Fold:
Amino acid sequence: MSDSEMETGLQSKYTQEELERLGRERPSIFKSIWHEIGFCFSLLGSMFIAEYFTSGFNVLLPALTNELNIPRQAETWPASVFSLVTGALLLPFGRLADMFGGYIVFVSGLIWFIIWSLIGGFSQNYVMLIFCRALQGLGPAAFLPSGIMLLGSIYRPGPRKNLVFSLYGAFAPVGFFAGIFFAGLSAQFVGWQWFFYIGTILLAIVTVVSYLTIPSDQTAKKDQGVKMDWLGTFTIVPALVLIVFAITDGSHAPQGWATPYIPVTFILGWLFMAAFVYIEGWHASQPLLPADMFCVKGMKPMIVALFFQYGVFGIFLFYASFYIEEVLGATPLMTTAWFAPMCVGGLILATVGGLILHILPGTILLLLSGLCYVLSVLLFAIIPTSPNYWAYIFPAMICATAGIDITYNVTNIFITTSMPKARQGLAGSVINSILFLGISFFLGIADLAVSETADRGKRQSYKVAFWLATGCAVMGVVIMILGVRVGKAESGMTVEEREELERELTATKSQG
Structure:
């Protein structure tokens, strides 16, 4: 059916005024504005706490390295294992959300996160710490895709959805800064354990509000007949874990990549990946990652570009904090202050973005964010020995938060609006899989580059990581420019409404 026929049918079924009203009004599932505020607090809080434990841990890591005697070869693992486990398990948990509903998966993920965050604060050595960080990763793997699923299925296309999604993205830099602040405070004054204890308290508050305010969708999901793709799960999870493990650990193994277990795990990972592709394409009745998802125009290049750009952001977070503390000699609290523009700027940019997403084309916003990614790491790559904060670090922080916030909001709205309600869990898992796997993969590559150039000194070897990130950022923005076209996030019909309209128009045409 042509676009003009669809547009004609759309105009006959809904007026633009009706669509605009539907896109702005409170969803009927909420009994009151306070019910909606509680729901939004829960979802925004979950993003906040995920970022808290991601960003803050990077600032805490230098202190932990000394206190728990973490060897150089294991230094990146407490930071990267969290993202690795989360990224590897997002697809299965997204499918569980599509099967049993977002409510049960979301709340269960928060409870699990509370348990292992609390235990993490009692870590006695770096092995226990890494173990707790790995098990922590199961929590976000459950509540991040189910959270996006709840947002995407409850809110229809329009300004209200744009604003809520933008606020959801805005709480990433707020949580990011809070993590850095409490990590710096804990490391310098009260002990690193309090970083975990404070996070546990915040998690408990979010969990209680979530239990009370998130609408249950379990009954509706039972009627959709969605099933778990177990073969796909048992191949994609080990594939991702083994590949990223080999890349991350290859630079620290006793003989580098010549150490036998490194190429073995790397090859095994790709064999599992090949098996996953075969199962998804030719065997599974309900694939974990359906091929028709990539038929959405612009989806393939968008995912590739996001993989590069989120990897750039991961390198920036990890090595900027290490560069500021170890090369520039800033204290943990000074590091916190230097990262403050990411919080304030991100909150402003994301909130304003929610008000203009239906006015400006997404393609322009993605181009702007891509350039910001490039500048954020380029400024650290060329930073002089005694830099002026306002000339280098401040604009790098603003560019970093602009890059991640704009990209995350525009692509989240595009992907969730392109998927029917039965696939909102899939949409959430794909969005967050790219984020966490991009961070883990490129952080491993950057760590390899830094290790191979360690004889140049920390300043120069860290700059190698920033130059690598600059190249990746350029690649991401080129792919976005050439392959992705996203329009304005205006009020419109849902996927189900469009499919129903198409069936009606087809039936009318055949009768005529």
User: Anything to note?
Assistant: The chain has a mean pLDDT of 83. Residues 230-285 form one domain. The chain has 19 helices and no strands.
